[in-house]
Amino acid sequence: MARKQIEAAAVGLSVTKEWEVELMSQVSNDLLVAYPVVDPFRCNRLAELAKIIKVHIAVDSIFAVNAIAAGAQQHGATIGILVDLDVGYHRMVFNHRKLLCNSLSTLTLPQVCVSMGS
Fold first, then answer.
1. Is the dihedral of CA 61, 63, 68, 70 positive or negative?
2. What domains sit in the chain, N to C, each tagged with a CATH number?
3. Tens of pLDDT along 84-118?
């Protein structure tokens, strides 16, 4: 199915897990990991793959940005970051209400990404 999407002019694919990146890299060289990866093993594996293909990861916390950045820096890789904001469906770990309750600006997460060169 993924191959058919690419043949039909899709520019990339979305996956949910780190191991799917490796599998789908056989079909596309532009992949989005829709859920943040935060453990060192998976961050390192994605960083290794990001040296071969274009990898983006949706993040919902500064913790996730830091974990992904550590893997990328360790391997000299570039991983794209997309900031995910909860707009009412409560699917993300952190939402804008939690950020505001903690006296943080809703721009804090994107500012951290920019400061890391993400």
1. positive
2. 2-115 (3.20.20.10)
3. 776 666 665 555 455 444 434 445 666 666 666 64
